Amino acid sequence: MSLRSPRGDRASGGALRRHRGLALLFVLPALLLLGALVVYPIGYSVARSLFDATGHRFVGLDNYSAAFTDSATLTAVRNNAIWVAVAPALVTAIGLVFAVLTEKIRWATAFKLLVFMPMAISFLAAGIIFRMVYDADPQRGVLNAAAVSVHDTFTDQPSYPGARPRPGAGLERAEGGDVQASAATGTALLPLVGVQPGALPATARAARPAGGDGVRGTVFLDFVPGGGGHPGQLDPGKKGLPGIEVQLRDGARTIATTTTADDGTFRFSAAPSATTSVVLPAADFAAPYRGIDWLGPSFVTPAIIGAYTWIWAGFAMVIIGAGLANLPRETIEAARIDGAGEWQIFRRITVPQLAPVLGVVFITMVINVMKIFDLVYIIAPGPVQQNADVLALRLYLVSFGGGNDQGLGSALSVLLLLLVVPVMLLNIRRFRGSRS
Questions:
Q1: CA-based, 20 to 30 A from 155: which of 174, 275, 287, 315?
Q2: Span 62-146+294-435: which CATH code?
Q3: pTM of the entire structure?
Q4: pLDDT tens-digit series, residues 356-391
């Protein structure tokens, strides 16, 4: 049994107080920085959200009421919900697949470098890159260039895209876009304009009247280089349009089909009648396929999610790959000995054992996408930016992007904070559970 003197207790207490004071001295700069950069802005935003746009009149919870009734804000909330529902799961799943692939291929290091490289690019640069990738012009947009190439490989192209009948020449444009002319007299002239210079074939010859019996006619470009000529007439210098499909119809029934010659002439052996007409199908003049409007109102949010996945898949791959490297190999080898296939091993052994790591990646991505801003701001064009709006972008536009209403913007920032905090607390609990 040992007895401690009061002097010893006082000495140990003083040493403990000195150690606490020294610890507080070292922690104080970090606390001041945390208060200046985190606590004060949060407190000021909460207070500012209770005032109007000028910041002088107290309005209570009116800004929060306006946030829940504004259609643009509701669109932003809906888009945020889409982001949370799709992007984290997509990034986690692709990262898992990539992490498993790195164990199966020889050039794993090069593959990891290639997948992780987008993480080294700023979101500004990535947004500019994908703004060009999604460009609607196939001459500049990579995706539309690929889509047009595939489409043109398997689909016949229009002979003269953009061509249209000469106004006032007696030609009619049907509801489906077909060009038709009456064949009651047996002869039909079909003058067209709007043919692009590069669309006229080198084999095109001077237009001339068609001869022979039956229904006949000429399809020609109603334009004389250098000027001159009369609209709708076969003047010298006008070119025939070869290769155009021509149909002879009796009402809605197609009697015969032919193609124009190099001089634009065509002929049907059928005798003309009061109900027959010569028709040029709309497919001859349809606009060429230009791809998909990736940045249009319908696809802009999925397109931006695709860009986000491209950037963050490498991060998920690295984290999941680290967890995969620490898995006990005995269970996998035992499953292989028992005859389990690779898919069974992946689904029943690898994924369950990786569940804690997958949960961390998923929750991290949820927190990240709830405050997504820069990619949406850069990629979405101005006219459709409201369709791709998210809460972080909305509060910026309301506060500084022309709205100049810091009261409503502060209310939106508080709402965004309230949405993020539960996920952050869940993540903290997971970290504490993994350490215990």
A1: 174
A2: 1.10.3720.10
A3: 0.75
A4: 889 889 988 998 998 899 899 999 988 888 899 999
